[in-house]
Design goal:
The protein is mainly alpha-helical and 53 residues long. It has two helices and no strands.
Length: 53
């Protein structure tokens, strides 16, 4: 697996997932932002695995 690709997609997914609740009216420091960032990071891992295979 390509580690720079993995780290890049985790960062992008976490950033988008953490920012998405602010677009829906939640605070950037809310629990929803933390959950969204976690889900985005996991989605980044899944996408990186799919791309590398």
């Amino acid at each position: 697996m390509n580690k720079p690709l993995l780290y890049t997609l985790i960062t992008i997914g976490g950033t988008i997932g953490g920012y998405l609740p602010t677009l829906l009216g939640a605070s950037g420091f809310s629990i929803w932002a933390i959950i969204g960032s976690t889900i985005g990071g996991i989605a980044g891992i899944v996408v990186a695995v799919k791309i590398s295979n």
